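Hi support team,

I submitted a single chain yesterday and got back a structure, but I'm not sure I'm reading the token output correctly. Could someone confirm the output below corresponds to the sequence I sent? I've pasted both exactly as they appear in my results page.

Thanks,
R.
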Amino acid sequence: MNYALLGDIHSSKEDLEKVLAHITERAPEAIRVGTGDLFECTISKKDITDKKFLTLEEVMIIPEGFPELLTFFSVRGNQEERIVQITETEDPLREKLSTLPETLEIGQAEVIHGHQWQWGGEPWSLIHAEVDTSPVFYGHSHRSALSRDGVDQAIEFGVPYDVAGERVLVNVGAVIGDREWVLYDLNDHTVTFMKVDM
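Hi R., thanks for writing in. Yes, this is the structure output for that exact sequence:
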């Protein structure tokens, strides 16, 4: 069984269309799973007050036809959390965002956005992730990455990597700008980092 993991779309319809077409071409049978930050919130974290917005259009970018492309399961990202936090509306899209889970299980693996972990440093990167399963797929930093026991591994696109074992973390990269995603072969315990030719 194969999974196509994609995330950090940030409302980029053009990039999402390209990635979805690439998934269809390379792994048409793969189950698509999102790692969060599907939408872009236009209110920054530092600008949040007690004010509640009454329409989603006031706080997020919603390109025409974009929500219809989101036909796959996804965890919630920090963008979705912020959108729900600062809005009060019965819009069905807000209801959908409010019900996105924090984590999903695919086989023995877990999917999480990753903003729940400790980040920092220069360049800004993952400092510590509290995980109980392996592998764990995540996003948030917009950088494709593979680490085992906290040690980053060099990666190339189009090459399968073994993810059997403990404490394996896989950053699936970003759809926005980079048009990256990951193919996870559950039977072979491998991941292949994928990138749409620009």
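A quick pointer for reading it: The mean pLDDT is 96. Let us know if anything else looks off.

Best,
Support desk
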